[in-house]
Amino acid sequence: MFKILTCFILLLPVGCFAQLKITDSLLKIKSSADSSIKIHPAEKLYLQFDKPYYAVGDTIWFKAYLFHAPTMSLSAKSGIMYVDIANDSDVVVKQYRYPVKEGLSWGNISLSDFPAGNYTLRAYTTWMRNFDPNGFFYKRFVVADDHEQTWLANSETTSSIVNNKLQANVKLLLSDMDKTAIVNTALQLQVMAGNHHLYKQQVQTDEKGIIDVNFTVPDKATGLKLVAEDKEGGNKITIPINLNRAEHTDIQFLPEGGNLVAGLPAHIGFKAISEDGKGINISGIITDHNQKQVASFSSLRLGMGSFDLNVNPGEIYTAKVNLPGGVVKEYPLPIVKSTGIGLSVLNPADKDSVIVSIASTNDIIQSGESYFLIGKARGIICYAAVLSLKEGTISRKIAKQLFPSGITHFILTNTKGQPLNERLVFIDHNDNLQIELAADKQIYAPHDSVAMHILVTDTAGTPIAGNFSMAVTDDAQVKQDTLNSENIITRMLLTGDLKGYIEEPGYYLQTKSTEAWQALDNLLLTQGWVNYDWQADKEHPVFAAENEFEVKGQVQNGFNKSVKATRVTLLSKSPLFAKDTLTNNDGRFVFRNFPQIDTPAFVIKAVNRHDKSFNVGIVIDDVKPPLYAMAAGPAIQPWYLSSDTALLNTAKNNRTRIEQEYLAPNGHLLKEVTVKAQKIVKGSQNVNGPGNADLVLDETDMIKAGKKNWLDILQEKIKGFKTGNIKSYNTRFAIQHKSLADEESATGIEIENLPRYFQWYFVEDKPVKFIIDGVPFGIYDKAVLASPTFEDITNYLQSNNAEDIKGIELNSSTKYSNNYFRRYIPFDWQRSLSSYNFSFVEITTRSGRGPALKANTPGMFLYKPLALSWPKQFYKPRYTVNDTTKHLPDTRSTIDWEPNVITNKNGQAAISFYAADKPTVYTLIIEGSDGNGNIGYKMERITISKQKPDTKL
Fold first, then answer.
1. Among 289, 316, 324, 458, which is most buried by a count of CB atoms within 10 Å?
2. Coil, strand, or helix at residue 549?
3. Rounded to an integer, what is the distance from CA 885 to the centroid of its chain?
4. What is the predicted pLDDT for the residue at 836?
5. Are 73 and 84 in contact, with CB atoms under 8 Å apart?
């Protein structure tokens, strides 16, 4: 293991007292950094998944590794991990909480409630929230379903300028799920920009299933998509249109060290991103103000590259860039500074040292000031030196052995520690764990037992005991993309320290070539970095590390003052148990050591010495999850646009597996019978009677919703729930909102022909009136001027969560809304409002007290925390030798999932599983850690043959 904490080297100048004082300042910077790392070490998280994409009804299997960031050993600081899953609208639809022990956790997530679409998983600990949120773990994945989507599409989009107008050409090949072309079929095509219809026309596929569409793209049009619909056959498909217009290419030029300085040589990195968010290859020249060429450049890979430039004083440089399609566009280079310092680093892959060079302008040389050169890795200062620039350009050869494998951050600062120049480089000692997978046969037959022997060593061949996880997938259904997918090595040594989307992360560390090493250096020249340092202005963490599941809070009196030495009891109904404790001098209490609970619900009471509740309040420490930030990267294409046969097979085989659940004992498919029991919301004030509504979400739905706020639930569960604008000429309608008319205007009886607009919630095209426990809340209330505004309603819906309510009922159709209209719209308003169709949303709270929502009585609190999720056992079928039993088709895409592979002191472990039905190739991926700072990854493949082999290794 690399001992990062012992690798500090300090180069001390010898001289006068002033220099000793400067050296002392550097020592203080080092000491402060070390102290911060020791007291507040960051955590880094990596999750291995069984496969990169899924089907509806599938299950995600994962293993989590939580690392102590400075040493890469497994972290013992946090005992709880959170997982959020957001849909393609960046709305969090599910939240989970998992126990972590000694830096390890594993579990599963059922996708039975997830419709087909694109999702992003975010994982973090509470302690990680004290640091840069870019350090959270993100994973984007697809959920496919060939039952809902019956067509596949391959599309090719090009664009051109015709008569100064942008023309798009879309060639579309349509096929069914068996990849049979949809030929000679009449379709209705619509081109849309967001929700706006641009064009509509009738077309017909040709004998190959191809459509060729041309249309003009309006200026500033975004969110373009093509909708093709076969109204006769009931098929419909939506295709996003990515034009990748050359003029919309984003290009950045980034000088090494930070600036272009007059008179100093410059090494400049560049990065070109197309409209779809991916790298695009470019070339071009650099010209000065006289249009004279002074340099040329060409991207090496994924739109990134670098070039050298001699920078002249007062010069203005321009890049003339050759873009795809023959477009040439000019981009200005950064402004040349007249004074400054340049920092450059040479990092040859085959050398044991890096060369750091520092050059400066004459004014800085003559100032005689000193500077600090600091080399940091994983937040630790591994190298520090005091430099004087009196001699002009200076170079330092710095041994790579001072730094661990991964990203090293060189920083030049002034003597106050303020950064002046920065540069990232990658150090590779090739010291990752060596993992060998050996099968007991060369080839296997379907239903064979497969035994895999695992050996883990370090680079010297010493056996390593550690903890690993392994996934086995069927190549016919799962395409394991080693370039685009992250693994534990790319995450922990590279991408986890960089901001934003990294395209093809596997290429940089798995491809051992001169080009890959140069491409990696270009990446580090152009990519922002994640700061894992503790912020100096933070004396105490905002978020404490959670070591275990706890229930804690404070007892307060009517004046919000703490109440000490008060007995607090916690009661659980299922499982049945009770706990009690006393508040401390700050009125605080905590309960620990809980049993495993699937759906926790606790009644917490503060009682006096006579065991009686009294007039105090209980405040629970329940930290809200962080706001969801969209994961960086290009939009994921809908799964049905993929030409990936493996993904299609996953979706089709998943449907087969689901159908098997309906098979009768004789093997015949049972006719699906849907039995719907009417949902009832207990205590509902529904004027049609409880459960008589267009949509009913009962208490079971609320339990599944967990900590979601009401607005999220309404947006997720009610189709067509949205915001919109209402226009009205009716004075009574307008004056109840301060944003529509002031109180002076409200005293009038009529405001003729004066339109009023305001924002409100709708279900489809019907404005919503909220009813809370039978109490109207919103527009058209009798207490006109006291009615809440749209902002009030929004804040109210967002400030309450599913735990507070028993259910929601939507009354939107005439059948169910008429009684509500007569009940809740004032009679003298009904004529003027009769042209409106309304949707009424009845919400039943646990307190039954209407919009006030005070669910907890004095001295008592009902608390429903987010439950800890516990892992299930991965199912593996067993087949016996010469088995003649007729089995259902074995359509597994994940053949085996082993989340807890432990190698012994000899570095050995073994796992086994049974092959499925068909000849194919299986991919095995194993990764993990020895717990002491070393990680490893290995991918192997084995063959399942048609014949019954008998060859042993």
1. 458
2. coil
3. 45
4. 57
5. no
